[in-house]
Amino acid sequence: MRTALPVLAMTLLAGCSGETTSRLATPVEITGDEITAPLLGLQGDAVRGETVFADREQGHCVLCHAVEGLDAEFQGNVGPALTGVDARLNEGQIRLRVADIQSLWPDTLMPSYYRSGGLNQVAPAYAGEPALTAQQIEDLVAYLGKLDGERT
After folding, report:
1. How many other C-beta atoms lie within 10 A of the C-beta of residue 26?
2. Which CATH number is 10's domain given?
3. What pLDDT is attached to residue 22?
4. What pLDDT does residue 143 have?
5. Where does the pLDDT of residue 113 fall: very low under 50, low under 70, confident under 90, or very high at 90 and above?
6. Is residue 125, in this structure, part of any structural domain at all?
């Protein structure tokens, strides 16, 4: 019994360390409710991020979210409006929510776009791959980080 306690303690500590290698496409450090460092050290581009946000073949975030001033045929209302999200969340918090929202809210409808492990009903061609690349995530972070109600 005494040997089980250190093993249990190490298991619990490992779960709090921030490493999420089994869930995400690349290892990241999660601190609190954010991924503080850009994925793979990449720099995001807000213009490309707007395309990722609106494009059906990329993130298609407009399916559930609305942004004031965005030229999109349809904007959803299932998720919160994202105009001014930069006043509510910092870049690290936005990054975690896009990369792996389900780590914060397991029952959310929003996909974890950078998650590659522990998924169900994934077509064989996409198994082990995230829905968005690290660059697309960083582009979204750059775009969402500038949504103060004015176009980027």
Report:
1. 13
2. 1.10.760.10
3. 63
4. 96
5. very high
6. yes
The residue among 38, 20, 31 whose CA lies nearest residue 136 is 38
Residue 73 lies in a domain: yes
130 is a domain residue: yes
Length of the chain: 152
Q: Which residue has the tokens 């980027």?
A: 152
Contacts of 139 (CB under 8 A, 6+ apart): 44, 45, 46, 48, 49, 51, 52
Q: How far apart are CA 121 and CA 101, in angstroms?
A: 18
Prediction pTM value: 0.81
Residue 34: beta bridge partners? 31
Backbone angle region of 69, left / alpha / beta, with phi > 0 → left and psi within -120 to 50 → alpha: left
Mean pLDDT, range 96-117, rounded to an integer: 94
**Positions of E strands within 6-102:** 30-31, 34-35
Count up the domains in the chain and report the number: 1
Contact 64, 79 (CB under 8 A): yes
Amino acid identity, position 91: E
Please compute the mean of the pLDDT values over residues 124-141 and round it to a whole number.
94
Six-digit token string for 145: 């980080």
